Amino acid sequence: SDADALAARAAVLLWTGDIDGSVVSGELAMRLNANIGPETAFNLGIAYLLNRRWADAVRLLEAARIRYPTYPTLDFPLAGAYAELDRAAEAADALDQGKRKNPYLDLAGFGTRFQDPALKHRLDQILRKAGLE
User: Fold this and answer.
1) CA diameter of the chain
2) For a Cys staple, 6 with which of 29, 49, 79, 89, CB 3.0–4.6 Å?
3) Which of 124, 133, 114 is nearest to 14 (CA)?
4) What is the DSSP letter of 74?
5) Residue 132 DSSP SS3
């Protein structure tokens, strides 16, 4: 019942490739402490993307952006979720906001923590659809 420990577990599971386990841990961490921090929302948002849970990613990441407006990477997975939902204008806006906060981030540098290159590739496809190069 420790939100911080569950958030850390969710991160480890995400980057080592257990996406379903990451979602379970991340959702539980967020239920225990909805204000746990932007990194937990970021990780859960990425897990939602990889599980094709586009609407869940939008809901989570939109709320996280409001709570943490200067966090530099929440906009990128949000742009991907919008793109997958065919919301091109919103995807472009989220990508533009992300680039203003983090102008040096590119596709090659995003998701480099994945141990499984196939997961990085899947995430790249989603972000490329949003316009990240």
Assistant:
1) 40
2) 29
3) 114
4) T
5) coil
23 alpha carbon, distance to own chain's centre: 11
* 33 within 8 A of 3, measured Cβ to Cβ: yes
Q: Please tell me the distance from the alpha carbon of residue 44 to that of residue 86, in angstroms, as a whole number.
A: 21
| Planar angle of CA 72, 18, 76, nearest 5 degrees | 20
The span from the CA of 29 to the CA of 125, in Å, is 28
Q: How many CB atoms lie within 10 A of CB 104?
A: 7
Tell me how far CA of residue 52 lies from CA of 38, 58, 77, 89, in angstroms: 21, 11, 12, 20
Note the pLDDT tens digit of each residue in 55-65: 999 999 999 99
pLDDT band at 100 (very low <50, low <70, confident <90, very high): very high
Convert the pLDDT of each residue in 17-52 to its tens digit.
Answer: 999 999 999 999 999 998 889 999 999 999 999 999
CB 48 within 8 Å of CB 60 = yes
CA 12-1-25 angle, 5° bins: 30
